[in-house]
Every structure is written in C-alpha cells, then in structure tokens.
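Support request from a user on the community tier.

User writes: "When I paste my structure tokens into the form, the page sometimes reloads and wipes my input. The last time it worked, I copied everything first. Here is what I submitted, just in case something in the input itself triggers the reload:"
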C-alpha cells in the first residue's frame, strides 16, 4: 500500500518551521518554501504540488509543479524548493499525476494525496531603480521600435545602409522612455530578431512589443529595453558550437553581442548595464545560443531564457549538468507538450533542482499546453518569461 508522509518548512538556516499562526518577518532570501513527501509511485507516475498562489500554479492542475524524486533511506521521497514572495495563508495540495508529456495538459489527470495549509509572513524588498509609469485606466501607452545597423568585425553582415555594413538590430524603447529622462532600464537581448516584433518573418512573430506594452501597462513587469538581433545565413554556426569551425563562428557571434553590440546599446540608451539587469533570450537553436552566452559570459548576462531549447545539439546539456552555469545566473526553461523536446527540458529542470536551484527564484519552468515548436507558442509563453526576468519590485 502506498503511504504518504508530507512535510512543509521554510528552507532557512537556523529559522524555525513556519506554519499557520506563524509570526516574524523573514528576509527576502528566506522565503524559499521546501515541500517534501514520501510516496511510492508506479510507472509514469509523479507527485506534484499545487496551490492558490501563482507560484504554485493557481490551483490549475495543468500548471501544478512536478516535484523531484530521490531515494532516501530506501524510500522514495519527492521534494521541491519554491520561492513564494507573498505572505498570508496559503492552501496547497499534493497530487499524483501521470507525468508523460502528452498527459500533463489533461485536466482529468490527477488524484489528490493531501491538502494542507501554510502561513508565510513575507517582508518587502524595495528596489530603488524601479521605474513607475502612471497609466490611465483603459489606455495602454505604446513603446517605440527603431532599426539600426551595428558595424562589426566579427560576424556576417546582414544590412547595408548608407554604405554601412553590419548586423541589423531593432531596439524597443518602453512607454515613458522620453518622458522620464532620469530613468534607467533593464535590457533584454533576443536572437532571431526578424521574428521578434510586429508581423515578423515568414514563420510568424513573437510580437514582443505588444506583450511588453501590455505587461508594463498592467504593472506586471518593469519597463524594459528590448534589443532584437537579426539572424543570418550562418545561423546554425553562430548559435550552436558543434564542430571546430562552428566553435569559431559561435565565439565570434558572442564577441559581437558582448563586445560590440552591448557597449553600443549601453552608450546610446539609458540602460542598467550590470548582469542583474541584462537578460538574453532565444528559442530552439536561439535557446542554445542563450544558454551558451550564460555559460561563457555570466559576468554579462545575469538572466538567461531558453524556450524550446534544442538540447540535442552540441555540448550545452553536458556543460549544464556539470554545473558550469553559475548560481548567480537566473535561468528560465520551457517547452510545448507537442513534439517540442519537453522530455529533455524536464530532465534538465529536475537535475538543476537536485543541484540546489529554487523554482521561481533562480529557475523557472513552463510547459505550454497544446503548443508546438513555433513562434505562436513562444509568443504565448513570452509573458511568463518577462514576469520572471523583470518583476515589478515593491517600493
């Protein structure tokens, strides 16, 4: 007979367990909640946790968080560390679910194992550089997009304007940029720039400017600058170091991004140039390019987003599993549930959690239900990445 033992505690050194009726105000770094239970599962079964808060999936069974299995004294223990910043009473429950990818978006896939209550008293975390822009009710202020050509000695030129040859980039400036001349902004660098804005290229568009405008208007993210970098006929070699020649081309692409493009952006726009405010994002091979940038330039990119990453290419997966990505780099991973390599992304997620990363803190993961490997899916999941990368801070 399966036997469930569940535990809940704050994952804090020398801090007592907090349950309902708790008192005190833990510091922001002390709001990592450790979920743990013992349950013997069968084939294709896993234990999930869900609850009322968005961090626990908002009681949406398709967004429940899969826990990580480990053998503890001969028994199977499921555990998960989740960052939950808000205070108050939280109801959560453990679920037994079929964890095959094609079943995870089935709302009937789940059996409640235990329902519990938790009380977290959370303190504030003011951010002095946060930019507040008033938005009228029912009105969304729009950002602006401008195209540029960045001269480069490292990679293939894609544009030739006024005798200037270089790589084409498009820069999105958030609403209020010109109205707030003292404000400085985080920056998101995106690969495959032709598909990032407006109607995009032949494969569709992320419509990143529309997503950012809406999230900024709703005060769900800080205002940000987005720099979308065009790809080139050398896209595979630039994004994925696989063979000796590709290592050279990929290194040159990263040298362009880090040594030529970023200094240009920082000198022409009011940026917050430190790693904590600099993100890089891509999908598919662009997801691999982002992971490599985080691995090789962690002192530049403090936030890395890899949507539907092509983990079958190159040595990126092995490097991540060896622990080469510093803990200071916050990582976002996702995949669709339909022919999108979700099994490999789930495997990477679980291994990183075993190594100490915390969901919603330095690691985020999203599974896109009924989503395939295309721009429409990445557009749909872009808000999740932006809320993780650039949350509005209190203060």
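"...and here is what came back when it finally went through:"
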């Amino acid at each position: 007979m399966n036997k469930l033992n569940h535990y809940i505690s704050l994952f804090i050194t020398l801090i007592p367990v907090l349950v309902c009726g708790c008192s005190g105000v833990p510091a922001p770094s002390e709001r990592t909640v450790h979920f743990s239970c013992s349950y013997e599962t069968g084939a294709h079964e896993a234990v999930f946790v869900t609850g009322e808060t968005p961090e626990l999936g908002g009681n949406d069974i398709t967004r429940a968080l899969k826990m990580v299995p480990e053998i503890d004294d001969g028994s199977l223990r499921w555990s998960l560390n989740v960052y939950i910043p808000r205070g108050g009473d939280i109801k959560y429950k453990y679920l037994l679910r079929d964890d095959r990818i094609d079943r995870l978006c089935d709302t009937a896939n789940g059996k409640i194992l235990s329902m519990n209550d938790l009380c977290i008293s959370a303190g504030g975390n003011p951010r002095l550089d946060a930019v507040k822009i008033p938005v009228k009710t029912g009105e969304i202020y729009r950002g602006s997009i401008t195209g540029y050509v960045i001269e480069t000695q490292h990679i293939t030129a894609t544009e030739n304007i006024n005798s200037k040859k270089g790589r084409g980039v498009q820069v999105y400036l958030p609403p209020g940029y010109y109205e707030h001349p003292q404000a400085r902004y985080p920056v998101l660098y995106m690969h495959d720039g032709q598909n990032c804005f407006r109607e995009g290229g032949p494969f569709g568009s992320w419509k990143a400017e529309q997503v950012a405008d809406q999230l900024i208007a709703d005060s769900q993210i800080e205002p940000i600058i987005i720099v979308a970098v065009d790809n080139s006929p050398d896209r595979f070699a630039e994004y994925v170091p696989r063979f000796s020649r590709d290592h050279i081309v990929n290194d040159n692409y990263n040298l362009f991004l880090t040594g030529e493009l970023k200094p240009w952006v920082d000198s022409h726009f009011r940026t917050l140039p430190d790693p904590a405010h600099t993100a890089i994002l891509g999908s598919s091979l662009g997801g691999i390019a982002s992971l490599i940038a985080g691995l090789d330039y962690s002192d530049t990119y403090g936030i890395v987003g890899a949507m539907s990453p092509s983990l079958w290419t190159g040595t990126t997966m092995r490097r991540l599993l060896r622990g080469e990505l510093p803990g200071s780099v916050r990582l976002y991973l996702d995949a669709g549930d339909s022919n999108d390599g979700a099994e490999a992304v789930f495997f990477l997620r679980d291994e990183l959690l075993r190594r100490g990363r915390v969901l919603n803190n330095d690691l985020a993961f999203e599974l896109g239900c009924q989503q395939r490997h295309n721009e429409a899916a990445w557009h749909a999941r872009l808000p999740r990445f932006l809320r993780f990368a650039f949350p509005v801070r209190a203060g």
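Agent notes: The reload is a front-end session timeout and is unrelated to the input. The chain has two domains: 5-120, 144-389. The mean pLDDT is 81. Escalated to web team.
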